[in-house]
Amino acid sequence: MQGKTNYITPQGFAALRAEYDRLLGEERPKIVEIVSWAAGNGDRSENGDYLYGRKRMREIDGQLRRLARKMKDARIVDPARQPDKSRVFFGATVTIADEDDNRRTVTLVGNDETDSGAGRIGWDAPLARALRGAGPGDLRTVRLPAGEKEYEVMEISYPG
């Protein structure tokens, strides 16, 4: 089954690659060493180091598979190369204002790069979907669990 295209910034892809390399090059070899040492100690059924090590190795292997799938499905999009910087597309940093003129700045990034505390929202988040293609002065309605909320696009910028 083919995965869904995973839009991601170059920095986000580098972070995925770094995590994959760290797990494969550092974490997994340490666990393999512990499991090998523990296996040599005899009875494996009551050997905590062996049992924990095998469990941790399965977790790491699962993480490696997930990261490999994300990287395979990744489509790296460099926001600095966006030709139309007057509209909201992937990688845009957007300042929006609600009905009460409360302003908020968000950056539309890949779903694997989200960090709401830093204002980085995933490309498929409801707010990001509503903002796609908008220009300064456009009003966009976002459907949220608490109800609809309207935002005005105040400013759009891109890195670079």
Automatic annotation (TrEMBL):
Keywords: DNA-binding, Elongation factor, Protein biosynthesis, Transcription, Transcription regulation. SUPFAM superfamilies: FKBP-like (SSF54534), GreA transcript cleavage protein, N-terminal domain (SSF46557). GO terms for biological process: DNA-templated transcription elongation; regulation of DNA-templated transcription elongation. The keyword NAD does not apply. Residues 6-76 form the Transcription elongation factor GreA/GreB N-terminal domain. It holds the Pfam family GreA_GreB_N. The keyword Chloroplast does not apply. Residues 85-158 form the Transcription elongation factor GreA/GreB C-terminal domain. NCBIfam families: greB, PRK01885.1. Belongs to the GreA/GreB family. GreB subfamily. PANTHER family: TRANSCRIPTION ELONGATION FACTOR GREA, TRANSCRIPTION ELONGATION FACTOR GREB. Necessary for efficient RNA polymerase transcription elongation past template-encoded arresting sites. The arresting sites in DNA have the property of trapping a certain fraction of elongating RNA polymerases that pass through, resulting in locked ternary complexes. Cleavage of the nascent transcript by cleavage factors such as GreA or GreB allows the resumption of elongation from the new 3'terminus. GreB releases sequences of up to 9 nucleotides in length. This is Transcription elongation factor GreB. It comes from Sphingobium jiangsuense.
